[in-house]
């Protein structure tokens, strides 16, 4: 009798365990995998969205570590997991996934003819349009790998602006004293890609052609910054953005390239015209700058597609873009919405970037993360004198041919 | 009569065990065979590749410089870490076995690092070994004022830092297990040795060490296996850098499978690691049975 009772309890427990997740899932219209949950205004943004769309959104926080984040997204999409409907993915991921069939095309129901022309055409084509012409993501914003300077240091060393390569070098040299450095970077092997490509662009090179002499000049320039002029520390090959930003905030660096609109500096009380602020990117051979975005994508395996379309229509709308600007300081990806923003130093500089600089999407390949890691590894080797610049160029070209 | 009744109810036991057998079969046996199968294929999800290549992945492992560097560091990591675990672990166990006032307190606090998640330790260590902000250099500068070293940017020092953190976290647990063995040694043996005029050093080598050597052997095998499969410390502390000099084999497998989506090649590395683990596991069972 007692054993029968035990069996009944066991079975009841199993049934409850199986049924319960279903009950939980029905409470929400869709599940969002978001990178913005740590933002203090995330709840306000979500409330706006739920109010305007009438959707009840379950939110899963993406890990803050970039490797973990990417691995989780990859696992969900590649395995056909339907537990997440909408995901936020960056350019590295979208260029990897856009041709896999894991992402639902959006041109018919979300990015329709009425609004598609407001999005940056080149970026849309390069980053989130598949070979078959499907647009698979809604850009959440338009960002730049902007140039940031510390005004206190500009004043201290007698510089008004950093407008040319010569200004850049002179300021970097002047500001490199007392254990501080003129230029700071984030040269961890998966992060340094952005800076290598930025300097290649500034010198007028081509990231996919390492026989180009301008590419050599760019690498030589970065090498000289470390070893000849000693204006940037080799120690930064261990640094990701969090370490680089902390050093910039602490006054260890005078200028850097960084994404975003300065939230980290605001939070640290170091943002302002007389402190850290955004500046026009200097002109070397060219005045080039990278643009990027995190895009909202729809998992093909989603079982809540109608709700997901509603969500995506909202984030692609004027209202959705303005909510992202107000809550996350994200500059709208739509040109018509961007024009409606009130003037401030960020919007003014973003306008100047789009008008005066050569704006480019970052060079991506299908196996982007593997390519980025390989390039970062040999870059670290050349900066540590483990290989020569010539060897770097040969290996880099080899990786281009292998992955492109 | 009683035995017959018990046998007739054996099916209840099987029913109760069955869910576990099914779950274990599905989550352990099936993945092992599936991993072995995939290791003979070139599966690259991002390129849409899925073709049979026979032993090609296995040949590639031994000519791939990335993997060879990974194997090199894995061996350095396992051998260095285990050597230090044994030497320092026995030393710490001896200290904890001594009679002194704060013995219980020390035995308690010594386990704190072991109780912390490795990922937390790895992330803290990334800052801890930073030249500017790290507490390691801050401590050294109290004795060497101008000391400057960015531990995690040079291959050798980054490797040393990873090994040091592994020992810092896991040594206390190893020592506590050795301590358990030490406490089984009868005090009469030491008293008899003292009467015969043996010094403390002689007592250690003639009594203590021979009596705990089997404990050390039995403990060393699972600890070695954990080192071989170690992943989280590198993942959170160095991401395998600088270059790929601190990549451990488990980290490379994860990178190949989950970041690069080279499932076939990642599976090949996993199968090779699995074979090594089986050898260690069998050896472990042999020593346990012998004991």
TrEMBL record, chain A:
Record key words, sorted: Sugar transport, Transport
Entry-linked InterPro entries: Bact_solute-bd_prot1, SBP
Source superkingdom: Bacteria
This protein's name: Multiple sugar transport system substrate-binding protein
Organism: Halanaerobium saccharolyticum
UniProtKB/TrEMBL annotation, chain B:
Cleaved signal peptide residues: none
Gene Ontology biological-process entries: transmembrane transport
Membrane keyword on record: yes
Superkingdom: Bacteria
TM region(s), chain numbering: 12-33, 73-96, 108-129, 171-190, 211-229, 265-288
Localization (cell): Cell membrane
UniProt keyword list: Cell membrane, Membrane, Transmembrane, Transmembrane helix, Transport
Domain ABC transmembrane type-1 intervals: 71-286
PANTHER family listed in its UniProt record: BLR7065 PROTEIN, INTEGRAL MEMBRANE SUGAR TRANSPORT PROTEIN
Protein known as: Carbohydrate ABC transporter membrane protein 1 (CUT1 family)
């Amino acid at each position: 009798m007692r054993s029968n009772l035990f069996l009944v309890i066991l079975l009841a427990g199993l049934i409850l365990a199986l049924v319960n997740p279903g009950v939980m899932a029905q409470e929400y219209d869709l599940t969002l995998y978001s990178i913005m949950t740590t933002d203090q205004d995330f709840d306000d943004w979500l409330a706006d969205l739920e109010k305007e769309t009438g959707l009840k959104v379950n939110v899963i926080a993406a890990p803050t570590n970039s490797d973990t984040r990417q691995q989780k997204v990859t696992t969900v999409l590649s395995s056909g997991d339907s537990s997440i409907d909408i995901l936020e993915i960056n350019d590295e991921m979208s260029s990897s996934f856009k041709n896999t069939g894991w992402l639902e095309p959006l041109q018919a129901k979300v990015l329709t003819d009425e609004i598609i022309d407001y999005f940056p055409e080149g970026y849309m084509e390069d980053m989130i349009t598949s070979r078959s012409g499907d647009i698979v993501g809604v850009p959440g914003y338009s960002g730049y790998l902007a140039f940031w300077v510390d005004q206190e240091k500009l004043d201290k060393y007698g510089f008004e602006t950093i407008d040319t390569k010569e200004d850049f070098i002179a300021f970097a040299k002047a500001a490199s004293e007392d254990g501080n450095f003129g230029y700071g970077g984030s040269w961890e092997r998966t992060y340094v890609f952005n800076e290598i490509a930025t300097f290649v662009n500034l010198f007028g090179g081509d990231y996919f052609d390492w026989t180009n002499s301008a590419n050599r000049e760019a690498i030589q320039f970065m090498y000289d910054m470390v070893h000849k002029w000693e204006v940037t520390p080799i120690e930064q090959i261990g640094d990701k953005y969090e370490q680089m930003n902390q050093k910039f905030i602490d006054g260890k660096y005078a200028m850097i390239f960084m994404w975003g609109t300065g939230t980290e500096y605001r939070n640290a009380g170091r943002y302002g015209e007389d402190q850290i602020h955004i500046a026009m990117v200097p002109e070397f051979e060219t005045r080039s700058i990278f643009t990027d975005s995190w895009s909202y994508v729809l998992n093909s395996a989603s079982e809540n597609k109608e709700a997901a379309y509603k969500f995506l229509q909202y984030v692609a709308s004027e209202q959705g873009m303005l909510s992202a600007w107000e809550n996350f300081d994200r500059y709208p990806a739509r040109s018509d919405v961007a024009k409606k923003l009130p003037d401030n130093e960020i919007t003014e500089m973003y306008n100047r970037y789009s008008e005066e600089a050569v704006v480019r999407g970052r060079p991506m390949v299908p196996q982007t993360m593997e390519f980025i890691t390989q390039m970062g590894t040999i870059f670290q080797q050349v900066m540590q004198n483990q290989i020569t610049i010539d060897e770097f160029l040969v290996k880099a070209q080899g990786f281009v041919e292998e992955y492109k | 009569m009683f035995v017959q009744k018990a046998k007739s109810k054996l099916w209840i036991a099987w029913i109760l065990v069955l869910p576990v057998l099914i779950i274990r079969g599905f989550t352990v046996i099936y993945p092992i065979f599936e991993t072995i199968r995939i290791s003979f294929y070139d599966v690259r999800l991002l390129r849409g590749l899925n073709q049979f290549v026979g032993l090609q992945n296995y040949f590639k492992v031994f000519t791939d410089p990335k993997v060879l560097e990974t194997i090199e560091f894995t061996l350095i990591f396992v051998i260095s870490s285990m050597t230090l675990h044994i030497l320092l672990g026995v030393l710490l166990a001896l200290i904890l076995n001594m009679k002194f006032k704060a013995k219980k307190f020390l035995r308690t606090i010594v386990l704190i690092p072991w109780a912390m998640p490795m990922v937390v330790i790895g992330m803290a260590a990334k800052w801890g070994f930073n030249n500017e902000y790290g507490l390691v250099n801050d401590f050294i500068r109290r004795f060497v004022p101008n000391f400057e070293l960015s531990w995690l940017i040079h291959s050798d020092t980054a490797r040393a830092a990873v090994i040091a953190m592994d020992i810092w976290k896991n040594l206390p647990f190893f020592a506590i297990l050795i301590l358990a063995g030490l406490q089984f040694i009868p005090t009469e043996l030491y008293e008899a040795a003292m009467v015969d005029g043996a010094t403390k050093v002689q007592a250690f080598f003639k009594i203590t060490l021979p009596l705990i050597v089997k404990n050390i052997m039995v403990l060393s095998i699972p600890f070695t296996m954990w080192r071989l499969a170690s992943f989280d410390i590198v993942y959170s502390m160095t991401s395998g850098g600088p270059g790929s000099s601190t990549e451990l084999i488990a980290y490379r497998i994860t990178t190949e499978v989950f970041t690069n989506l080279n499932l076939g090649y990642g599976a090949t590395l996993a199968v090779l690691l699995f074979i090594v683990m089986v050898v260690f596991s069998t050896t472990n069972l042999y020593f346990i049975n012998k004991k």
